[in-house]
Design brief:
Elements: E1 12-18, E2 21-27, H1 29-34, H2 48-59, H3 62-67, H4 79-85, H5 93-96, H6 98-109, H7 124-140, H8 144-154
Antiparallel strand pairs: 1-2
Length: 161
C-alpha cells in the first residue's frame, strides 16, 4: 500500500469512524509525523513471553498480569496453574496469592473471613510439606543423596523399628 501524500510505502494505517462513515488514512512515517500522529520510538517487542504477558494484561487485567509471575515458595505452585486447575497447593498459597484470591472468595462465598469450624492444627505439617517440596526438587535435579536424606526425614520415627 502506498502513502496517500507522497506515494512512498505506507507503514502507518489509521481508521476513523465518524457519523457511521468509515475513513481510512495510509501514510508513510514522514507524512504521519508531519500530520502530527504520535508514533512509538521503537517497534514493539515480539518476544513470545512479552506478547503473552501483554495479552494477559489486555484481556484479563493488570492484576492478573502481576499475579501471573507469582510462585508459592513452599509448594512451587504458580498463580496461573491455580487458575487453570482450580486447586491450591498448600495453606501458604492463600497468603501468597491473596490479591487474586480475595475477590474470588468474596464473589463465591459473600465474605472473605471464615466463620465456623476450624480443623485441628498440626504444626509439623508445614515442615513436612516443605520437606516434600524439597524432595521433589531434589529428585528433579537428580540429586539422589539429598533426596535420600529428605526421604529419611519424612519417614515416621516408629517405622524405623
Amino acid at each position: 500500500m502506498t502513502c496517500q501524500h507522497c506515494q512512498d510505502e505506507a507503514t502507518v494505517h489509521l481508521t476513523e469512524t465518524v457519523d457511521g462513515q468509515r475513513r481510512e488514512l495510509h501514510l508513510c512515517v514522514a507524512c504521519a509525523r508531519e500530520a502530527g500522529v504520535a508514533l512509538p520510538e521503537s517497534a514493539p517487542s515480539l518476544a513470545l513471553d512479552a506478547v503473552i504477558q501483554s495479552l494477559i494484561v489486555t484481556n484479563v487485567g493488570e492484576l492478573v498480569g502481576e499475579l501471573a509471575s507469582l510462585t508459592c515458595p513452599d509448594c512451587g505452585l504458580k498463580f496461573m496453574e491455580f487458575r487453570a486447575k482450580g486447586r491450591l497447593g498448600c495453606p501458604h498459597d492463600y497468603r501468597v496469592f491473596a490479591r487474586g484470591l480475595l475477590p474470588l472468595i468474596s464473589r463465591t462465598h459473600g465474605a472473605t473471613r471464615h466463620v465456623g469450624k476450624v480443623a485441628r492444627r498440626r504444626p509439623a505439617e508445614s515442615e513436612r510439606l516443605r520437606l516434600r517440596t524439597q524432595l521433589r526438587d531434589a529428585i528433579a535435579r537428580e540429586d539422589y543423596e539429598l533426596a535420600a536424606r529428605l526421604r529419611d526425614q519424612l519417614r515416621p520415627k516408629d517405622a524405623d523399628a
